């Protein structure tokens, strides 16, 4: 059974400025191991780390340059040591540009995101955590489904300027996880940066 984890974060403020100053409102993580979406508010993040630490790898979209640096503000170890697939990074490597998740989802899955991050910031200001959670779960579900499609079909799609659907070859398989001298036991799901 896979121990991969697909995740996404929402923040309390709009992106901009230093990542060190950004705070999480909620993180949603889908665990393949128990086929469940787990939600964690800022004050609950300590409950999330074991899920990440035992993962074969974590999977996100634009997660290496956005989600992980913000989560690192809360984590005592080094999150970069956990095996990680940033799908946007892989797509950019193949296509040469950075498409939005919503465009990929529409072209590949015929679905779309239920909102955008700025709405989640407004919901945080008004204390509407149920709306933030639903939106973030939807994003994680779409990210997971795009991942599954790309892993199975070795490609995803995006709409070009004329509206035609163009394929992007991708390599999302676990063979992308390799052993590292930085403390990752590849494929074991063990982050060796923390004492056990």
Kindly describe this structure.
This protein is an alpha/beta fold and 196 residues long. The relative contact order is 0.18. The radius of gyration is 16 Å and the shape is globular. The strands form three sheets. Strands 3-2-1-4-5 form a five-stranded mixed sheet, with helices on both faces. It has a two-stranded antiparallel sheet with strand order 6-7. A two-stranded antiparallel sheet has the order 8-9. It has a single domain, classed as Nucleotidyltransferase, domain 5 (2-Layer Sandwich), CATH 3.30.420.10. The two termini are 23 Å apart. Residues 178-189 and 191-196 have low confidence and may be disordered. It has helices spanning 45-53, 63-72, 87-95, 101-109, 117-125, 129-153, and strands at 5-11, 24-31, 36-41, 58-60, 84-86, 155-159, 165-169, 184-185, 190-191. The chain contains six helices and nine strands, in the order βββαβαβααααββββ. Strand 2 (24-31) and strand 3 form a beta hairpin.
List the helices and strands and how they pair.
Layout: E1 5-11, E2 24-31, E3 36-41, H1 45-53, E4 58-60, H2 63-72, E5 84-86, H3 87-95, H4 101-109, H5 117-125, H6 129-153, E6 155-159, E7 165-169, E8 184-185, E9 190-191
Parallel strand pairs: 1-4, 4-5
Antiparallel strand pairs: 1-2, 2-3, 6-7, 8-9
Helix pairs in contact: 4-6, 5-6
Keywords:
Nucleotidyltransferase, domain 5; disordered C terminus; 21% strand; 196 residues
Mean residue pLDDT: 87
CATH superfamily: Ribonuclease H-like superfamily/Ribonuclease H
Overall helicity: 25-40%
Main structural class? alpha/beta
> In CATH terms, what is the architecture?
2-Layer Sandwich
Q: What is the name of the CATH class?
A: Alpha Beta
Main sheet strand line-up: 3-2-1-4-5
Number of strands: 9
Work out the count of structural domains: 1
Main β-sheet: number of strands, strand sense, barrel status?
Answer: 5 strands, mixed
| Helix run count | 6
Poorly predicted residue ranges: 178-189, 191-196
Would you tell me which CATH topology applies? Nucleotidyltransferase, domain 5
Q: Rg, please?
A: 16 Å
Beta-strand percentage?
A: 15-25%
Shape label: globular
The span between the termini is: 23 Å
